[in-house]
Each structure stands twice: as structure tokens, then as C-alpha cells.
Amino acid sequence: MLDIQKIRADFPILSQTVNGKPLVYFDNGATSQKPQIVIDAIEKYYQEINANIHRGVHTLSQLATDAYEISRGKVQQHINAKFAHEVLFTPGTTHGINLVTNGFASILKPGDEVLVSALEHHSNIVPWQMLCEKTGAVLKVIPMNEDGELIMDAFDALLSEKTKVVTVNHISNALGIINPIKYIIEKAHAVGAAVLIDGAQAVPHLKPDVQELDCDFYVFSGHKMCGPTGTGILYGKEAWLNKLPPYQGGGEMIKEVTFEKTTYADLPHKFEAGTPNIAGGIVLGTAIDYLNNIGFDNIQKHEEELLEYATKRLLEIEGLRIYGTGKNKASVVSFNIDGIHPYDIGSIIDKLGIAVRTGHHCAQPIMNFFCIPGTIRASFSFYNTKEEIDLMVDAVKKAKTMLS
Ligand SMILES: *Cc1c(COP(=O)(O)O)cnc(C)c1O
Questions:
Q1: How confident is the model at residue 240 (pLDDT cuts 50, 70, 90)?
Q2: Torsions phi, psi of 30, nearest 5?
Q3: CB-neighbour burial class of residue 365 (10 A; exposed 0-12, middle 13-18, buried 19+)
Q4: How far is the CA of 93 from the centre of ligand 1 (A)?
Q5: DSSP 150
Q6: Atom of ligand 1 nearest to the CA of 123
Q7: Which of 67, 91, 136, 343 lies 20 to 30 Å (CA to CA) from residue 30?
């Protein structure tokens, strides 16, 4: 069993009051809080080893480079990538996806098809739309059902030899549904399509094994898994990363530059032009260590309890509907109350110290599907408690009384 009070003490922000009330932070789907060990590691980097990486022969540059590459190795181990050079540092999920779509611009032909799912975050829709506009490829959508689950029969029917890319999130940020990505990857590969998995919402809750999944790309952000903002990872299979052209040109990504011709550096540097977020990359490794010390089995067990408890308690409220009622779910509850705008509930419970997300959660197609303007989303982390859920339920009840 996790000692939640001990874990909470690792997160200085959690002992704050907001609007005179103890903070109840249930907006972990937007970004997670950071433990002291992560905050300290950022300071330590700038106090002790700050220097540019891969460039100088001087001692500090070596220390910074070593720390950066050690962190890359930690990520490699964590996601079980075959090679460290398949792990690219990025500023986040959005950047990672754009890097891949940019590369596919020179691969896709008019009439080729890209399949995205109805459950995607805008950052896994818009770059593919832009790619299709540029190349003449056609965007197709894997539909969902009323429970917020992707319809696998429809997916099977959409696949053909025209399908070149399939992209789907591991876990939906808006509804918390866990998608059957293993099946999707297998089926997509059977028609020769590449698969990109948007793991932004998965990595805070589980440890993905990219070799076991056999996905071609797996992207995520550091800031949702206790790491600093402006950090992220794009995992790509070596063969794909060799095939894709570089995303940005500049320093660090070259082998040799003349005005006639430039040759590109080997992986991973080909995709890491310019000075990266060095501190962030190093400290992402610290965040991963922190999570692994707590243990993803423990995290999942605790979060499952929170999900079950929150679902049960919220459904006590008359007129409350939960969106995303599929069986396979992460610790996210997206809901509305009949006749009340989600924004109004969100504003009132904020006054009571409860931080939730209200709105379309960067997933407008899902809101259109349910014909709603948005939802109230409570997304739980391992540092949350049932007592906090009780506070939220009380606050929502109070807001409902005030608004009806
Ligand atoms: C947060 C999120 C993104 C975007 O991540 P950024 O860190 O903002 O780049 C993409 N997809 C999903 C599923 C997300 O939850």
C-alpha cells in the first residue's frame, strides 16, 4: 500500500490553500504537479553543471552532456526501446507529432489514407489534417460509440492497402478511455501502415513497452508525468527515423555543412537541431526515477480505487451524467449535470479550492459527438485521496443547488 500522506509531502504545492481553501488538484490530465526532488534537480543543474551539450571539450560541457545522455538512457529503459538513439528529446507531445507529420509529407501520395480516431486531442488531429492538405492524402476517422469506445469493426473496415498511417491515443484525455492499441497496431501493420501512438495521457499511469506494443512511434510530454514543462519524448523505430527527413535544420543536427550540400548527423541528433531544453531533459529522468520508485503497479492500484470511488460518489448526484462509460478506463471522470453549463460548475467549485478542467479538453469532435459544449473533467493522480473526492462531490452538490 502507498503511504499517500508521505507522498503528498513530496509535492510542496499540494499543501497550499487556494481561495482560502485547501487545494484539491484534480487537473492532472492538463499537467501534473512536481515533487521537490524534480524542483531541486532543476536548481542543481543550473547551480552546478550548466553548459551547452555535445559541443565543448571542457569539463562542464562533458558533465552536462553525460547527464543528458544518461537521462535519454533512462527513458530508453523505461519504455523499453531497443536503442537509445530511437529516443528523441522534444519540447512535448505536440512537437513530436508535428515532427512525424512533417516527415511524412515526403512519403505520402495523393489518395493515400491516414486514419485518426474520433477520440483524439487536437494536437493529434490538426497536424495530420495539415499533412493531408499538403500531400493530397485523405483523412479518415475511426468512429466511437456512446460509451466513448472506438468501434473496432469500423476500424477493421476502414483498413486497406491505401492506409499508410494509423494514429490513436493510448488513453483519451477527455474521457479517460484506454484504447485497444495492441490490436490496432497489429491490424494496421497487417496492411503495411505505420502507427503513431499518442501516449501523453498514458505515461502518468503506466509504463509503456514500445517493443512489446510494436508501435512505430510513441509520443508523450514530460510535464504530465511529474517532469518539467517544455520536455517530451518521441520514440521512433530506427528504420522509420532513418527514413524520415529532418524536421528542423540548424546546429547539432549536421555531419558536414558546405554551401553546396549538408549531410545530416546520425540519430538521434538528426532530429535535435539547436540547443535543447538541457535542464528539462535531464530532470525528466529524475521524474521517471521518482515514478518508478513509487511503482506503476502501486500507482495503478491506488488510481483505480480513486476512479471507482469518484464514479460511485458522483453518480449519487441527480442529473449527473458521466461521459466515457467504457470498461477500460484510466483515473479520469468527465461529467455534466443536466441543464447546467460545465463552466458555471467549474467556476463555483474553484472558489471552494477544487481545481478541475472545464471545456472541450482540446477534443471538440468528442463534444460534438455528445452534442455538449464541454464537460467537467476530474483527472486523478497517485497523490490524490478519497477525502479530496468527498470535498469535490460536496462542492459540486453545492454548485448544483446554487445554479438550479
Ligand atoms: C496533453 C495532450 C497532448 C498535448 O501535449 P502537449 O504537452 O500540450 O504538447 C496531446 N495528446 C493528448 C492525449 C494529451 O493529453
A1: very high
A2: -85, -45
A3: middle
A4: 5
A5: B
A6: 10
A7: 67
- CATH for 4-30+296-403 is 3.90.1150.10
In the block, residue with C-alpha cell 463534444: 367
User: What count of residues does the chain have?
Assistant: 404
Which ranges in the chain are annotated with CATH 3.40.640.10?
39-292
Q: Collapse the DSSP code of 340 into the 3-class scheme (helix H, G, I; strand E, B; otherwise coil) and give the result.
A: coil
DSSP assignment of 157-200 equals HH--TTEEEEEEESB-TTT-BBP-HHHHHHHHHHTT-EEEEE-T
Q: Is the pLDDT of residue 55 over 90?
A: no
Closest residue CA from atom 5 of ligand 1: 93
Q: CA 84: distance to chain centroid?
A: 20
Q: Can you give the pLDDT at residue 56?
A: 81
pLDDT-based confidence at residue 1 (cuts at 50, 70, 90): confident
Q: Does domain 39-292 have CATH number 1.20.1560.10?
A: no
CA-nearest residue, atom 14 of ligand 1: 200
User: Is omega for the bond preceding 208 within 30 degrees of 0, making it cis?
Assistant: no
**Lining residues, ligand 1, CB within 6 Å:** 92-94, 121, 123-124, 169, 173, 198, 200-201, 221
Q: Where in the chain is the domain with CATH 3.90.1150.10?
A: 4-30+296-403
Catalytic residue IDs:
362
What pLDDT, on the 0 to 100 scale, is given for residue 280?
98
**pTM value?**
0.98
CA–CA distance, 244 with 262 (Å, rounded to integer): 16
Find the 218 Cα to ligand 1 centroid distance in Å: 12
In angstroms, what is the span from residue 223 Cα to ligand 1's centroid?
10
